[in-house]
Specification:
SH3 type barrels; six-stranded antiparallel β-sheet
Length: 162
C-alpha cells in the first residue's frame, strides 16, 4: 500500500485528497477552491525552485503555493491508501487520522471521544450490520455505518475478538 504524500511533493498525475492538515481557516479556504477530503485532484505541474503547484479541480485550474500544498495530503487515484472506520471488521483496532464532516456531526463524534490519534476497537456489528459498536477511551459507543465512513483510520490491526 502506498503512503499518502503532501501535494507539494506529488508528480503530475491523478490523485485523491486524503486529509487537510491545517486550521479552520485553511480548511475553509481550500473548500472554497472546491477541494475536500476524498475529492479528486489532478496535478498538472510542480514548479521547480519552490514555486506554486498547478492543479486541476472540477475542471478549473488553480495555482497553490508550496506552503498550502504541503498541508494537503493526497494518494494516487485508484489505490486504496486510507481506510474508514466502516472498513473495519469485528476485532480490528486502529488509530484515527482525520474526521471528515462538519457541524453537529463532527461536534457529536468529538464529544464521544473520536479524536485524532485515538485508538478505536471494533467490538461488534448489529445483526443487520448497522449500527456498529466501538470501544473508544474505554467507553462503548455506537455509530451508524454512514457515520463511520466519515472517520479516516490507519490500516486495521487484525486481532482476536475480545
Amino acid at each position: 500500500m502506498r503512503k499518502t504524500i503532501p501535494l507539494s511533493k506529488a508528480s503530475p498525475g491523478s490523485y485523491r485528497i486524503v486529509s487537510l492538515n491545517g486550521g479552520k481557516n485553511f480548511v475553509q479556504r481550500i473548500a472554497e477552491m472546491g477541494m475536500y477530503p476524498d475529492s479528486p485532484v489532478e496535478v498538472l505541474e510542480v514548479m521547480n525552485g519552490g514555486g506554486p503547484v498547478r492543479v486541476s479541480v472540477k475542471g478549473s485550474q488553480l495555482a497553490i503555493g508550496r506552503g498550502m500544498a504541503a498541508k494537503i495530503m493526497v494518494a494516487s487515484e485508484g489505490e486504496k491508501d486510507f481506510y474508514t472506520l466502516r472498513d473495519y471488521r469485528e476485532g480490528d483496532r486502529g488509530r484515527i487520522i482525520d474526521i471528515k464532516g462538519h457541524g453537529k456531526f463532527k461536534t457529536r463524534v468529538l464529544e464521544m471521544g473520536f479524536t485524532k490519534g485515538e485508538e478505536v476497537y471494533v467490538e461488534k456489528y448489529a445483526p443487520l450490520r448497522d449500527p456498529i459498536e466501538f470501544v473508544v477511551k474505554g467507553y462503548h459507543v455506537s455509530l451508524r455505518r454512514e457515520e463511520a465512513e466519515n472517520i479516516i483510520m490507519t490500516p486495521p490491526e487484525r486481532t482476536e475478538k475480545r
